[in-house]
Specification:
The chain is about 25% helix and about 30% strand. It is of the alpha+beta class. A 4-stranded antiparallel β-sheet has the order 4-1-6-8, with no helix packed on it. A 4-stranded antiparallel β-sheet has the order 3-2-5-9, with no helix packed on it. The protein has a two-stranded antiparallel sheet with strand order 7-10. The N and C termini lie far apart (about 95 Å).
């Protein structure tokens, strides 16, 4: 009798093992298929509850929100320091980014961009997105801003250059 039990147990174990292997293969195929379907923008809201809850889809090209090429100032009741930059080599340069302390804050969709700055901010221009030569000039700065100086011009050849560190007449 013990031999018969062992044989029955081995047969049941084999059936369970085969069933689990089939289930594992099916689950792996379903995961790969579902991930592939989620890569299509049109299907993602239907398949992912989270995408429906979040609302507007993430756009990696939109780094700046509403500030793209716009004038934005915030200083309420305090002295606001501004710097205006203009693309002088073309009507616009949407692939050129203005960075403050390494963070992108605007693109030159319009020829001129005016931004609020603070003492010590490092201003950079990133033209790595374009192969064209782009000239950008400081066309206006608040009277207290001594650096970058009005009239300073940067020429980008598909590279990233420092425009300067913001200095004021009252600073060191």
């Amino acid at each position: 009798m013990p031999r018969r039990r062992r044989a029955d147990f081995a047969e049941v174990a084999q059936r369970i093992e085969a069933f689990l292997l089939r289930v594992l293969i099916l689950v792996l195929l379903l995961v790969v298929t579902a991930q592939g379907m989620l890569s299509y923008e049109a299907l993602r809201p239907w398949l992912s509850y989270v995408d429906r809850l979040e609302g507007r889809a993430y756009d990696p090209e939109d780094l700046y929100g509403d500030a793209v090429g716009a004038t934005f100032l915030s200083g309420e009741g305090e002295r606001v320091l501004t710097v205006s930059l203009m693309v002088v080599s073309a009507p616009s340069a949407p692939d050129v980014h203005l960075l403050i302390n390494g963070f992108p804050v605007a693109r030159f969709i319009d020829p001129q961009v005016t931004i609020e700055v603070h003492e010590g901010d490092r201003l950079e221009l990133d033209g790595r997105g374009t192969a064209e030569v782009v000239r950008v000039r400081v066309v206006d700065a608040a009277p207290a801003v001594t650096e970058p100086a009005q009239g300073r011009e940067i020429i980008l050849h598909g590279d990233r250059k420092v425009l300067g560190t913001v200095r004021t007449g009252s600073g060191p």
